[in-house]
Every structure is written in structure tokens, then in C-alpha cells.
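Write out this protein's structure.
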Amino acid sequence: MIKPTARSPLLPLAVIGIVLYLAVVLVSSLPQSNDAGLEALQDRPAVSKEQAAQQALRFIRQTFPLSSDYRVSTLYQSDADRSGYLQKEDLAVTYAQRFGAYPLDYYEVEVNDNTSKTTYYIDVNFTDLSILGWESYIPRSIQQPAAAAGPADPQLIAEQTLRSRGYTLKDWERIEPDPQRHPSGSAAADSSRFVYQSKSLAIGEAKLQLAVTVRNGSAAAFHASFAIPASFLAWQEAQDKNAATMTRISLLLSLIMALASFYIVFRFRKEITFRRGLLLTAVFLAIYIANNFNMVPALRTAHSNGPSQLEAMFNLWFLNILIGLMAVSVYFALLAGRHLWLRQGWSPWPLWHEPSFGGQVRSAVIQGYLLCLFILGVQQTLFFGAEHWFDVWAVNDPSDSVLNMVYPAFFPLMAWAAAISEESVYRLFGIPFFMKLVRSRFIAVLIPSMIWALSHTQYPIYPVYTRFVEVTVIGLIFGYAFLKYGFMTVLFAHASMDSILMGFSLMDLGDWTHSLMGGFYIIFPGLAGWLIAWFHGKTKRRRLVTRPRLE
């Protein structure tokens, strides 16, 4: 039988965590820190998405025919391959000093002409509104208008385009385009593609290239990019495959755990109260589904040729179905986990009707914040050590950026969805389940922590194994905290940790409204716990007043 102990060493641990966190922040802010390179590559948007959209529309009207019936949307995009190469080769600062005209991060404005069925993607510099590149797609089933007057030779059109962009042709040499570096369809049968490589401009082994696609007598596409060495791309592809393999292993083992929880609930269904866990499951499901809709712009960043809305809607509802299935597994994990602990003589979380519920919530909030501060310090120390001693680096991911959310201020609510699902599956249920199998407390805490960590390797942090190590360590801390303080404490600790980190991401947006919201989310878990405890106390007093006397 396992019971949480009353005495807590969490206050000194929290102090240690704060000291570690501040020390890492201080060292990372020094000029010689490796973080200076990453910060040099990251620019904050200086213009709004609406301004970028208006600039893109002006460019299209000057370059292409555009009807009055169109739709416009603006996304944040990033060149992940170039960012990764620059960081791996320690070229970030040099690149920022020499090639500011070719930023890694930018706005991509999508314009859908409903009359001609043409889709335009215009890349706009989000610091000065300059046009970085463009693409135009016309379905093959649509008959294209006759070519406008001008040079008939596609190469002459391409060279004229480069001159109009301010390039001097004698500084460039034409090369054969590499089909593996460009999306299929950018050089269709009715178009010609021309690539020019700079004779002098390069960063490391990556040479600057200009690509122009000519179709129907005009430059249908133009992009300036650096040809990343094949050796780096092969290394990165191998890393991504390893991450995909680890993620699949995590999904398979998590599925086995889910099936085991279904079996336990079915077998002991007469002993289980099925209303337990319903509220937590509903909160998880509601937040996650709402977040999926909030992430629709992010889903559109991985578009192919043509309009991105249809692909995004398909992915949205596919994700919603998956989240629905995940909610079922969370519910059964809550039921099965609670039952396994009750059989050992320990109730892992208090129930609402218990008089001590409000007090235990308040204790869980305090313990959760203290534990959260310790884990944040450990995590930052692990990040610092990995970056400086194991050459670890990260790239921006537009599909997970607050800049690609309908309402960025809602994003930190996902802290609760993550806390409910992960603590239910990998601590509340995972630990007693593996204790039945291996009869070792340490192994029973370690295995679900590793399964949980494997699911985090898909984040764009390289080498990918480092995230597995980091999250496993954090999982061990959560696991032993669960055994010592109970489910509610680790639930608040996890939610507080994620809420603080997500609140910081809102503050990074720079405007005062998101800064205020970010500050609010730092204290929100504590506020939520206080409101729950207050409401319980109020309803308990009401029950005492309305309860009839027996004498």
C-alpha cells in the first residue's frame, strides 16, 4: 500500500529550481552564449498580418490578373531546413549579419481568386513588407488566358524577372534545377523552370540560388533560397525518421496500455463508479477540440499546390476523431487507475463530497506550484547542458506557433488538456499497471515515463534522442511526486508548468494585450484551484445549513 506523506521537502526544491532557472537565463543572455545565434535568426513581426495581406494584394494586382471575388489569409512560415543547417554549423550569427534580406521567418499570404480559380502564395517580409517570393497555381482543367505581350522566350522572361528584382545577371550562373528540392508541379508540362546560382554569395556550403518558373508568358513563381548541402538534409531526414519510429513505438505501447485499462474496467465493472473521471475527461475533450479549431491556420501551413482550406478541414476533422478516441482512453485510464490504487488501500484523489476536498485542493495547488518551479529549473538546466555539451538545437515550427492561431490567447488552456491526459495515463494508471507486471517501483515509474517521453520526440529539436532523455527525467520526477503527494498535486504541477511556459510564449508576441494574458496564465492554475476550493467550501456550508437536525 502506498500513501502520500504529510511533510514536504518541496519548498527547498522550489528554491533550487528558481536558482537553476535564473542561472541558466543569466548565462544564456551573455554575448558569448550559443543562444545569441538562435536569437539572431528569430525576428519578431514588425507589421501586422493585415498589412502583409494588403501588400500582397498590391503586388498581385501589379503582376497578375485578379478579379474582385477573392479570399485572403495570412500565415506565419519559416525555413526549417536553413535554420537547422545554420545552427548545426554555428553559422547563425554570420548569416544574420550578412543575409538580412533573406529572412528565415516571414508571412505567407494566400489569395484565392474565385473567378479564375487561381491560388497565389506571396511571401512577405514581416519586418519591412518587402516581397520575398511568390507562387501561382492554376488547375490544369482551367483554360488559361492568352499570353500578354512581351518576350516569348521563357528564359528571357526569367532573366527580365531577375533584373526587375534588382539582380545583376553577370553575378549569376544558370544551373540545372534539382527536382528533389522543389515541389512537384512547380515545373509542370506547360511551364519552364530556371535556376541561377550566385558566383559569390554563400553561407558555409549553402549557395544562394534564384528560381523562376515561367508559364504562359509570365513569371508564375520566384523564390530566393540557399541550396542546403545534401549531407545535412540526409542527416536531418535520418533524425526525423528516428523520431517517427520513436513516436510510433510510443503510440503502440500507449494503445496497449489503453486496451489494458479497458480490460480492467470491464472485469471490475461492478466495483467501479463510472461517474468518476467524467468531469476531467469532459474538460480535456472540450479544450482539445476547441484548440483544434483554434489551430486551423497552423494546419494550413503544410499545404500543397492550390487552396489550403480543404486540406486543413480534412486534417481538422481527422484530428477531432483521434482526440475523441483519446478522450475515451483517458476516461478508462482514470477509472482503471483509481481502481488499481483503491485495491492497494489508497484513494489517489479526493472526492467532492468529502469534507476535506477543499483543503486538499488548496494543498495540491501550493505543492503543485512548488514542484513546478523545481521541474522548470531542472528542465532549463537539461536544455542548457544539451545545447552546450551535446550540440542540441531547435528550429521554428510554423505548425505549432502561436502566430498561426485564430486566438493565441486561448492556447495556454491546452496546459490543462495535457496535464489531465498525460498524468491520467502515464502516472495514475501507468505506474500501478507496470507495478503489477514488474514488481519494482522504480521500473514501474520509469517505463511509463519513457513511453511518455517517446511521444515528445516529434518536436523539431535535434538530435531527437535528447528530448527523450529530458522528458524521461521529468517523468521520473512527476512519477515520484505522484506517489508521495497524489494525483491532484501532479495534475496542478503539470498544468502550472505548461501554463507558465505557454504564458511566456504569449509574452514573446510583444504587444501589451498578449503580455497581460501571458501574465494571467502564470497565476491561472492557482486561481482555478482557489475558486474550486472556495466553491466547495461554500456548498459545504450550504449543506450544513440545510441539513435537518435529528434531535
